[in-house]
Amino acid sequence: MKENNILVVAGEIETLAARKDKSIKLVLGTQELTPETAGQLYGLQSAFIYLAIKKERFQVDEMEMLNHMKSKEVVGKSKSQRLRSVIFINWKKNNEGYDDFNHYYDSKMEKFIQHCKNQIDQ
Fold it and tell me: Residue 61 in 3-state DSSP?
């Protein structure tokens, strides 16, 4: 697969599962693939990708538009998503008496915000 080329694979959504961090796990099943297409998919395993999903086949002009779109070079999670994930892992290890992660998260973020504000006052 060349840079900027789009890999189009027909298939169906088999499973959707909500995750604790409010993301969704999406499991797709494809139709039978050529060895080349299967290899391209395996080459994307664990890569951060963008998906375009449509019930009908993509038209030529749509494919050209998608092919020329540029991403903001986002690699993985944003800084705030990474911070939330780290706080979640800390909560799993020691919930400090919080039964609900959202309350724990709010408490930790308030402490961090107050710490940053105190730095301004100095």
Answer: helix
pLDDT tens, 71-95?
655 556 778 888 998 999 999 999 9
Q: Which of 59, 54, 42, 58 is nearest to 13 (CA)?
A: 54
Name the domain count of the chain. 2
Q: Do 85 and 113 lie in a common domain?
A: yes
116 or 3: which leads in pLDDT: 116
Distant-in-sequence contacts of 13-19, Cβ < 8 A, 24+ apart: none
Confirm if 28 and 8 have CB atoms less than 8 A apart: no
- Tell me how far CA of residue 37 lies from CA of 32, 44, 67, in angstroms: 10, 11, 17
- Cα-Cα-Cα-Cα torsion 76, 79, 85, 90, nearest 10 degrees, comes to 140
Q: Is residue 89 situated within a structural domain?
A: yes
- Global pTM value: 0.46
Range of the domain at 52: 11-68
